[in-house]
Amino acid sequence: MASLAAVPRPAEGWEILDETVLDAYLARTDAVLAEDSPRTARTVYTAMHGVGKDVLLAAFDRAGFPEPVLVAEQAEPDPDFPTVAFPNPEEPGAMDLAFARARATGPDLVIANDPDADRCAAAVKDGTDWRMLRGDEVGALLAAHLVRRGARGTFAESIVSSSSSAVSPGRRGCGTPRP
């Protein structure tokens, strides 16, 4: 343990990164898409009263996707999180406004960030309503996408994830070590 006072900090208390960091991030996210990937998916997005909206909109724009339908009541940062009991997309009720907007607009996908935008949730149409995808389902979809794009190597999983990601990579000659 060390004193917090010993941790180096900028004179202003924080450092604002310049646009080159965001540009590099957006370039990497755009590079994940194949040139011939369709760009027609319609999306509803909620920032859950957090900071993810501007980066998501920039990523969609750069990649050529249609602008998502925003959950306006949750689009701007608000530390009081007035529309949710707890601002986590996995919490019961937190996605109610996003699902209502999806029912009204008929998108292909619903995307939500938690307030600091370090986690992302996705929901898909399931019959007549919407269903959140579990983390292992999203992982399996991402693994399948990478394998289809020719990725080779080892796909890792953790104790808390299921082995569903092993199905696609394992059949295509990629290793999937167990924890």
Blueprint (SSEs and pairs):
Blueprint: H1 19-31, E1 43-46, H2 53-63, E2 69-70, H3 96-105, E3 109-113, E4 120-126, E5 129-132, H4 135-148, H5 167-171
Parallel strand pairs: 1-2, 1-3
Antiparallel strand pairs: 3-4, 4-5
Structural write-up:
It is a single chain. The protein is an alpha/beta fold and 179 residues long. The chain contains 5 helices and 5 strands; from the N terminus they run αβαβαβββαα. The protein folds into 2 domains: 17-31 and 39-132, Alpha-D-Glucose-1,6-Bisphosphate, subunit A, domain 3 (Alpha-D-Glucose-1,6-Bisphosphate, Chain A, domain 3), CATH 3.40.120; 134-179. The protein has helices spanning 19-31, 53-63, 96-105, 135-148, 167-171; strands at 43-46, 69-70, 109-113, 120-126, 129-132. α1 (19-31) packs across α2 (53-63). The two termini are 30 Å apart. The model has no long low-confidence stretch (mean pLDDT 87). Keywords: Isomerase, Magnesium, Metal-binding. This is Alpha-D-phosphohexomutase alpha/beta/alpha domain-containing protein.
Helices, by number, come to 5
Instruction: Indicate the low-confidence ranges by residue numbers.
Output: none
Gross morphology is globular
CATH overall fold name of the largest domain: Alpha-D-Glucose-1,6-Bisphosphate, Chain A, domain 3
Quick one: CATH class of the largest domain?
Alpha Beta
Strand content: 5-15%
How big is the Rg?
19 Å
Helix-strand topology string: HEHEHEEEHH
Structural class: alpha/beta
Question: Could you say how many structural domains there are in total?
Answer: 2
* Main sheet: strand order: 2-1-3-4-5
Provide the CATH architecture of the largest domain: 3-Layer(aba) Sandwich
| Quaternary structure classification | single chain
Approximate helicity band: 25-40%
Please give the number of β-strands: 5
Pfam family, one: PGM_PMM_II
Biased composition (Low complexity): 159-168
Protein name: Alpha-D-phosphohexomutase alpha/beta/alpha domain-containing protein
InterPro entries: A-D-PHexomutase_a/b/a-I/II/III, A-D-PHexomutase_a/b/a-II
